[in-house]
Design goal:
This protein has 134 residues and is an alpha/beta fold. The chain has 5 helices and 5 strands; from the N terminus they run βαβαβαββαα. It has a 5-stranded parallel sheet, sandwiched between helices.
């Protein structure tokens, strides 16, 4: 089971996506604040960082740089409301998913980056709630 460090300042989105990813077999560690996330990434062990792009105090891209400094080999996935981000925002990011992201693509990429296997059953009603909130 891969552990995902998910940082998102939106409580509802964080709860919904954490629940969905848990059904896909990921163990979730969450943070609501990028500055707190930097402190926590030095104390917790995780296999992948999942970061929201637009947050107060730091962008997901800036947080990705800080995480890569602390844990260089951990893949970082950035999610945003933007379809495309400039290459300068993706330097420390292994994958970016923007507006209209298909949940299967996001989960598949996370599984590939962590060498995880999918579970046998997932509650797709929760997945619909996530897509409505992103």
């Amino acid at each position: 089971m891969a552990t995902v460090f998910y940082v998102d300042d939106n409580d509802r989105s964080r709860r919904i996506l954490s629940s969905i990813l848990g059904q896909f077999g990921f163990e979730m560690i969450t943070a609501a604040d990028p500055v707190e996330a930097i402190r926590r990434c030095k104390r917790v062990s995780f296999d992948l960082a999942l970061l929201k792009y637009q947050m107060p105090s730091l962008t997901g891209s800036q947080l990705a740089q800080e995480i890569k400094f602390c844990v260089p080999d951990v893949p970082v996935v950035l999610i945003s409301g933007c379809t495309v981000l400039p290459a300068s925002e993706l330097v420390f990011v292994d994958a970016h998913f923007g507006r209209g992201t298909n949940l299967d693509d996001l989960v598949g990429t996370m599984q590939r980056l962590t060498n995880s296997k999918p579970p046998s059953r997932v509650n797709w009603r929760d997945a619909t709630a996530w897509s409505d909130s992103s």
